[in-house]
Design a protein that fits this description.
The chain has 282 residues and is an alpha/beta fold. The protein has one domain: 3-Layer(aba) Sandwich (Rossmann fold). It has 9 helices and 7 strands, in the order αααββαβαβαβααβαβ. It has a 7-stranded mixed beta sheet, sandwiched between helices. Helix 6 links the parallel strand 4 and strand 5. The longest helix has 24 residues. The model has no long low-confidence stretch (mean pLDDT 95).
Length: 282
């Protein structure tokens, strides 16, 4: 993204999340704030014409994956809270709405994002009349000036307490070294901590439809100033996670995600082969 501009990717993801509430029944991921966070004009336009969100043949697959990864993250969070995890850090939060519908009174939530995107989100929240709850802390972070540890520390995250890190829709836009660095930081967190993230698979490992989606999406992102920089081979990533000390790894590809969240749907909604979902624990 550009240094002084909000992320276009965050806007696109939020639109897919909101369109899922209108187009897909039953919903895989129920988000009562998904439309409100778009702002009144965009929300009204989407309500009037939900199909306006379908801008390419890949749109239904992206909408499905956006819903599935949010559901996966919050499913993993529910299990983590039951095990005693009391901190939830949303890295690259964009227009994520979890903190504003958080049903866990003891859970502290930290939203980490580029200062420009975070300022834009806070303006959207004010416009929608959504008040940040007291258990939420914003962590504006410019990686050119601060580390993740510094940004979270300044926001009040307790490094001695287990934390679940949700890192959705971010890894393709980072270098492989930056992804590994963040995973190393998470692996050094206290026992019981974990990460939920997604990643893109290299095109040579994809089917024909996945390769076409990869080409279209990567070109679109590059034109928007947010080029894709990292893809991961699932087997190699599994070895890297193990080497970092992260275990109990779930790596869900197309078949596993569709079996878990889209089985038996009459509308045929499903994810494609481009992205995987992962959870891993310290």
């Amino acid at each position: 993204m550009q240094d002084n501009q909000a992320s276009q990717t965050a806007q696109r993801v939020a639109t897919h999340r909101a369109a899922h509430q209108l187009l897909d029944q039953p919903t895989v991921f129920d988000d009562p704030l998904a439309l409100a966070i778009l702002g009144p004009e965009r929300a009204a336009a989407l309500r009037a014409d939900p199909q306006s969100s379908v801008t390419s043949p890949a749109s239904p697959f992206l909408r499905a994956f956006t819903a599935a990864r949010s559901r996966f993250a919050e499913d993993e969070l529910r299990l983590a809270v039951a095990r005693g995890v009391g901190q939830y850090a949303v890295l690259g939060a964009g227009l994520d709405t979890f903190a504003y519908r958080n049903s866990y009174p003891a859970l502290r939530v930290f939203e980490v994002d580029h200062p420009a995107t975070q300022a834009w989100k806070r303006a959207r929240l004010a416009e929608a009349g959504i008040a940040p709850p007291p258990e939420l802390s914003f962590a504006p972070l410019d990686f050119h000036q601060q580390t993740l540890a510094q940004g979270l520390g300044a926001a009040g995250l307790d490094p001695a307490r287990p934390t679940l890190f949700a890192w959705l829709g971010v890894t393709p836009y980072l270098t492989p070294e930056a992804v590994t660095g963040t995973l190393r930081f998470i692996a050094a967190a206290p026992a019981g901590s974990g990460a939920v993230f997604d990643y893109a698979v290299p095109p040579e490992l994809l089917d024909a439809r996945g390769q076409a989606a990869f080409a279209a999406l990567s070109q679109y992102s590059a034109k928007a100033g947010e080029p894709w920089l990292a893809t991961f081979d699932p087997a190699a990533l599994g070895r890297e996670l193990a080497a970092l000390g992260l275990g109990r790894v779930q790596d869900l590809g197309q078949e596993e995600i569709n079996a878990r969240y889209f089985q038996g749907r009459a509308d045929g909604l499903r994810v494609g082969s481009l992205y995987h979902l992962v959870s891993a624990w310290v």
